[in-house]
What we know:
By secondary structure, the protein is α/β, with parallel strands linked by helices. Helix content is about 30%, strand content about 25%. The protein starts with a strand and ends with a strand.
Amino acid sequence: xxxxxxxxxxxxxxxxxxxxxxxxxxxxxxxxxxxxxxxxxxxxxxxxxxxxxxxxxxxxxxxxxxxxxxxxxxxxxxxxxxxxxxxxxxxxxxxxxxxxxxxxxxxxxxxxxxxxxxxxxxxxxxxxxxxxxxxxxxxxxxxxxxxxxxxxxxxxxxxxxxxxxxxxxxxxxxxxxxxxxxxxxxxxxxxxxxxxxxxxxxxxxxxxxxxxxxxxxxxxxxxxxxxxxxxxxxxxxxxxxxxxxxxxxxxxxxxxxxxxxxxxxxxxxxxxxxxxxxxxxxxxxxxxxxxxxxxxxxxxxxxxxxxxxxxxxxxxxxxxxxxxxxxxxxxxxxxxxxxxxxxxxxxxxxxxxxxxxx
Length: 358
């Protein structure tokens, strides 16, 4: 079968090969025919070594498709079922799951160290234990979440990561208060989803911050009340909040420099939500006096900060009701053979989300 493979960490191009085999099928596992997958910035981060990932590997973790085969003991899905791939499945038995914090379950991360694919030259891993830039993938049954018939594969793919992460940051982690002021730094697919979440919660002012003009324009269409490049954020802070700072600031880039900017633009007693996934060696510096004196809440948001399955259901309900726009997030579509074009679209900021049709 075909799959897009990164041979070594640090390479900026993927090679689409037709000699890849999805492996690991057996009890408790399912084989999925991938129909659509989104390109998330985390895929680029893994390719560049920002996020830890063994190589060679098949990127992709935001996918949807249909079940081809189920292993012994699998009862929740059957061949022919439409599913979204969940890269962070909950085991239901660990301390985090028992506390109701299923997004902190480590079971999914344990899968990342087991090869999902094989080539004549040896084993190939799947990013985040999945690897959806492939025609087929074999994963634990918990990674295959059934979706209704009326949800298109491309929409379902977005729900698998970016939309769930951004919406959840606003709805679950921050629990944005109606009438509040919000700034979102980084307005790709995840940032736009955070904007939609803040709008749903009734934020009065939502300032989108991004260096790319097309993304700023898109943010206005998705609910932002103002959109500025990073250098104009101080002026927006003054205009919207009288210089006090925003009630909520979402950092959706994953860098200490933007997290520091987000902190400085959060009002005293306000909330900074860290959504972007950053590097192990990139440290955010805060002095102990400001940490105490400003009483700002710093809330990391992992995969939307809530029960993933419930978040999927809520997103589908909001989409059906016309309360959120998911199709508008897909600004580009490419076949798997042109995957490197999708990478360029992400790097330049030309795309909110590129759908890779497989």
